[in-house]
Specification:
The structure is a single chain. This protein has 448 residues and is an all-alpha fold. 78% of the residues lie in helices and 0% in strands. The protein is built from 18 helices and no strands. α1 crosses α8 (167-195). The chain is globular, with a radius of gyration of 21 Å. Bound molecules: phenylalanine. Phenylalanine binds at residues 21-22, 24-27, 101, 104, 229-230, 232, 235, 237, 323, 326-327.
């Protein structure tokens, strides 16, 4: 008999940690530029539907698995497949999820490094009075420098490793208890600033005045992919976080809170970025450079821009950090439980492997920019596309199929506290709508 698995200190800490994982670069960096690229409110509308119909069942499914397994995602899948008389091959889902989390972190940490670098630049007043060409030069110079990128990526990784190595309580819980309230305060300060730019109404119309005619297949697929990424599902993270859950936590109610907070963060990120974009006559459809080029241009021109810029990039760095620690957790939990290394060494080993892969990724911005053979993409883009477009949807699909069709149905419904009509609606969501929706994303990823 093994000793009882660790548990979160309280429901609140679990909510902070799960929200910390969900809220990250996906909300503040990716969401606004995807809204900008996909034409505004139509994307937001579809995104919200995807979150509710697909995101919610997936999040609950991962927590349910984790809580039942009380182990790392690999052993959780092994134990649950055996316990339900299913093929031992289901363990592959656990292995794949753990690997995907690690691979995502390798390139996520590179962008986390950019955030740290921009925090320093903003704090040092480097944007003040600089024109568009000057801001572009700052971005291009960063990307062209392997050494600067490596230092930034290393600092970001070391910080994440230092937190996770200290364990669930001392490391992750302590970090999210400090960082999440700080995140809330920072975003509120920035929002109140955005409301004074005089373009807040324009931004709201841009984000919420839906023209249904603008919705096409691409909008739906982009929105669905974003729903995966932003909720941290498909990467073993929520299974690992779920393994520290006690029996009393109500999964559905908790998932609703985490999803609500994640959505509020994404929408508010849009509400604070677009007014600045419009107030300065900049392009909303700028793409991935939106917050690294467009925003500094605005910070350069506005009064108080240095302080606002510093707060913004600090917000981005904190958000990235609480997601990065969650991305480390599945592999660390696995190594810690399967070997005699101990938590600290397990984290250092996993962190070093991820760090090395991240170094390969960052070289693709400069000295190693030639596309890889066969896949035709640079390392960074390849890792991003491989995980976001293929592996997250595939893992997500298998997880909902496992929970919807392979686990005993009544036990799962009872665990979720559902009966009657609610149970039927839930059954349709988990067994039909979520798998079909995910299949659509996956097929589109394969074809596109
Ligand atoms: N949800 C995080 C974000 O929005 C990214 C992430 C993806 C974290 C997958 C964990 C797992 O930035």
């Amino acid at each position: 008999m093994t000793s009882q698995h660790q548990q979160w200190g309280s429901r609140l800490t679990f909510i902070l940690a799960a929200t910390g994982s969900a809220v990250g670069l996906g909300n503040i960096w990716k969401f606004p530029y995807m809204v900008g690229e996909s034409g505004g409110a139509a994307f937001v509308f579809v995104y919200l539907i995807c979150i509710a119909l697909i995101g919610l069942p997936m999040l609950v499914a991962e927590w349910l698995l984790g809580r039942r397994g009380q182990k790392n995602p690999v052993d959780t899948m092994r134990i649950l497949a055996r316990g339900n008389d299913r093929s031992p091959a289901w363990i592959v889902v656990g292995i794949s999820a753990v690997l995907v989390g690690a691979v995502i972190l390798s390139f996520y940490s590179v962008i986390g490094g950019w955030s740290l670098y921009y925090t320093l630049q903003a704090g040092a007043g480097r944007f003040a009075g600089v024109d568009v060409a000057g801001i572009e030069l700052i971005f291009d110079t960063l990307l062209a420098s392997p050494s600067t990128l490596t230092v930034a990526h290393t600092v970001f990784m070391v910080t994440s490793v230092a937190i996770v190595a200290r364990g669930l309580k001392k490391g992750i819980e302590t970090a999210v208890r400090v960082l999440m309230p700080a995140l809330a305060i920072l975003i509120l300060i920035l929002l109140s600033f955005a409301m004074t730019t005089g373009h807040f109404g324009e931004a709201l119309r841009y984000m919420f005045a839906v023209d249904l005619g603008q919705i096409d297949g691409n909008t739906v697929l982009a929105a669905m992919g974003q729903a995966f990424f932003t909720l941290s599902v498909g990467a073993g993270v929520m299974i690992a976080y779920g393994s520290y859950l006690g029996p009393k936590i109500n999964l559905l109610a908790t998932a609703r809170i985490v999803i609500l907070l994640d959505t509020v963060f994404a929408l508010v990120a849009g509400m604070l970025i677009f007014p600045i974009v419009f107030a300065n006559g900049l392009e909303a459809s700028e793409g991935p450079g939106l917050i690294f080029i467009t925003l500094p241009v605005a910070f350069a021109q506005m009064t108080g821009g240095t302080a606002i810029g510093l707060l913004f990039f600090l917000l981005l760095s904190f958000a990235a950090l609480t997601s990065a620690i969650s991305l480390l957790e599945p592999a660390v939990e696995f190594l810690d439980e399967r070997t005699r290394l101990g938590r600290a060494w397990a984290t250092i080993v996993v962190g070093s492997l991820i760090w090395s892969l991240g170094n390969a990724a960052l070289l693709s911005f400069n000295v190693w920019s030639d596309p890889l053979p066969i896949v035709g993409l640079g390392v960074f883009d390849f890792l991003d596309v491989l995980t976001s477009q293929y592996m997250l949807p595939l893992n997500g699909l298998l997880v909902v199929i496992f929970v919807g069709w392979m686990l005993d149905r009544h036990g799962a419904l009872k665990e979720l506290g559902l009966s009657g009509r609610a149970a039927r609606v839930w059954g349709i969501l988990m067994r039909v709508i979520a798998p079909l929706g995910v299949t659509a994303v996956f097929v589109a990823g394969l074809v596109g």
